[in-house]
Design brief:
- It is a single chain.
- The protein is mostly helical.
- The chain contains 3 helices and no strands.
């Protein structure tokens, strides 16, 4: 079963963006708003623990999650396709050996 890459990327982007948005608001409610730079702020330009930072974090999270989801979905589909090709080649070879009158080219497993 292959993944729909666009749908998977969109889902990952929305989940990561919403997660970062709620994480920011959780920190605002517990510790208060601060303009201090954070570790995430080093990667997401403009992000800090503030209401405007939560929106910036949401946008960066959507973009970052979509890119990671796209890469993961493509890699997953590539691996699944390679496994299917290998399985099909094995099945074709097995069928050939079963129907062949000469078994000298067939491997004994």
């Amino acid at each position: 079963m292959q993944l729909n890459i666009k749908a998977f990327a969109l889902t990952c982007g929305i989940l990561w963006g919403v997660g970062l948005f709620f994480l920011t608001w959780w920190l605002i409610l517990l510790e208060g708003s601060s303009g201090d730079p954070t570790l995430i702020g080093r990667f997401y330009v403009g992000y800090n623990i503030s209401p405007s930072g939560s929106i910036i974090g949401f946008l960066w999270g959507c973009a970052d999650g979509a890119i990671v989801g796209l890469a993961f979905g493509w890699l997953y589909n590539f691996i699944i396709l390679q496994m299917a090709i290998k399985k099909r080649k094995t099945a074709i070879w097995s069928t050939f050996c079963a129907r062949s009158s000469s078994r000298r080219y067939c491997k004994v497993i």
